[in-house]
Amino acid sequence: MKTYRYFIYLTLVVVLCYVSACSKKYDADAFGVFEAEEVMLAAQAEGMIVDFAVNQGATVKAGDCIALIDTSHLVLQRQQIQLQIDAFWAQYDAMLAKKFKNMNETLVNIETKLYAHSYKVSQKSVIDSLNDEKQKLESNITAWKQDQAKQIQVLATQVEQLYIQYRQVNEAIAKCKIVSPINGTVLSKYVNCYELAGMGRPIANIANLEDMILKVYISEDQLSTIKLGQQCEVRIDAPDEEMEVYEGKIIWISSQSEFTPKMIQTKKERVNLVYAVNIKVKNNGKIKIGMPGEVTF
Fold first, then answer.
1. Contacting residues for 153 by C-beta, under 8 A, at least 6 apart
2. pLDDT tens sequence for the chain (297 residues)
């Protein structure tokens, strides 16, 4: 009798453990791997890299300087043009040319400020204001030249060519500064300090690891159950056969079907047509690029 009761007790324990284990299982609607928004930074100028202090794994912000290419020859060229401009103005009546000179110098300053703010999205109002100021100034310069005598217009054209050269050198110097366009982490460095950089040569790879993208594939019959902006539940593997849960948001649904990815090896699955879906997930540091994940819509 005791043996029979012990057998019943043991059976109940096994059943309860099985039910408990089953209750921890999740039914996923789709599976995929995590990706990140990556930016490949390349050199826009040729020369020796004189500053590349950012290390692999470092966190950078949009607008931060990643590397600097030698600008010494460009600085000398700019100084030479400046001397030519100074010599030009020295030949003519300062009072006659003062307004035109001031307007051109102000225009150069505005363009310099515009480049300094071009990578800072938060400075959009400043950029718009500078662009408006630049357009007004250019209109004033055009109107001023039309009001002057023919001789003054010829002189103005000559010095304007020098200012154009000056601004071109300024732009070339600005391109020697390699700036991060996004907030992210440096995944790879392809060159080191004091190496030669060629135009278009990759310098570093930066990725936004704060917002990860889970790319999954769904069948056609699942399309009607999801929509852009929809919240969903994303899970990754955790210790002890558990799952860690995250909140996700659907940010992209492919408009075209495609064959099941090659990692599906069975012939039956390979011929199925699926749709790609991107789900944005806030990363707490545990999600890595290439890590598998699953989602429930």
1. 145
2. 444 443 444 444 444 444 444 444 557 888 889 999 889 999 989 999 999 878 888 999 988 888 999 999 999 999 999 999 888 877 766 556 666 777 778 878 877 777 776 656 556 677 777 778 888 878 877 777 777 666 666 777 888 889 999 999 999 999 999 999 889 999 999 999 999 888 889 999 999 999 999 999 888 888 888 899 999 999 998 887 788 899 999 999 888 877 766 555 444 555 577 888 999 999 988 899 989 999 998
* Dist CA 117 CA 26 (whole Å): 48
Measured distance between the N- and C-terminal CA atoms of the chain, rounded to whole angstroms: 51
Burial letters 91-110, b for 16+ CB under 10 A, else e = eeeeeebeebbeebeebeeb
Q: Which of 32, 17, 78 is nearest to 213 (CA)?
A: 32
For residue 49, what are the contacts with CB-CB under 8 A and spacing of at least 6? 67, 68, 69, 70, 191, 192, 193, 194, 195, 196, 197, 203
179, 66 Cβ separation under 8 angstroms: yes
Indicate the pTM of the whole model: 0.60
In 3D space, the residue among 67, 33, 58 whose CA is nearest the CA of residue 191 turns out to be 67
Rg (Cα) of the chain, in Å, rounded? Answer: 31
Instruction: Please answer whether residues 196 and 52 qualify as being in contact, where contact means their C-beta atoms are separated by less than 8 angstroms.
Output: no
Identity of residue 168: Q
